[in-house]
User: Which sequence fits this backbone?
């Protein structure tokens, strides 16, 4: 069974930094693109950042220049370094993958359970 598990969320003051991690557990052969999304109360889920298996990245307009996505394929882990945090970054952050391949199956579009990030003003 494949699971995506996020960690690293918490409470931080405006201007501070946090680093989120998302580790994929299970017998994994490969993972395609991975992404971070976030959802604030009463708002739609939005794309924060994405990274392909070869390291090409893309970012939502609201986080460009402040957030950096990276991945360690050997550890099946994706990271999100968040700097210069603002109160409007407060949300639950979710990890997502396009496709996770195991020796016996392919899991399409798995999601993590989310981690709360709260930025105080």
Assistant:
């Amino acid at each position: 069974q494949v699971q995506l598990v996020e960690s690293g969320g918490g409470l931080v003051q405006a201007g501070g930094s946090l680093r989120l991690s998302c580790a994929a557990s299970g017998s994994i052969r490969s993972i395609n693109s991975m992404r971070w999304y976030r959802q604030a109360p009463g708002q739609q889920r939005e794309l924060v950042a994405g990274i392909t298996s070869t390291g090409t990245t893309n970012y939502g307009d609201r986080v460009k220049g402040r957030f950096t996505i990276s991945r360690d394929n050997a550890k099946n882990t994706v990271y999100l370094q968040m700097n210069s945090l603002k109160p409007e970054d407060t949300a639950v952050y979710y990890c997502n993958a396009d496709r996770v391949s195991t020796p016996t199956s392919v899991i399409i579009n798995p999601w993590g359970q989310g981690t709360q990030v709260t930025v105080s003003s």
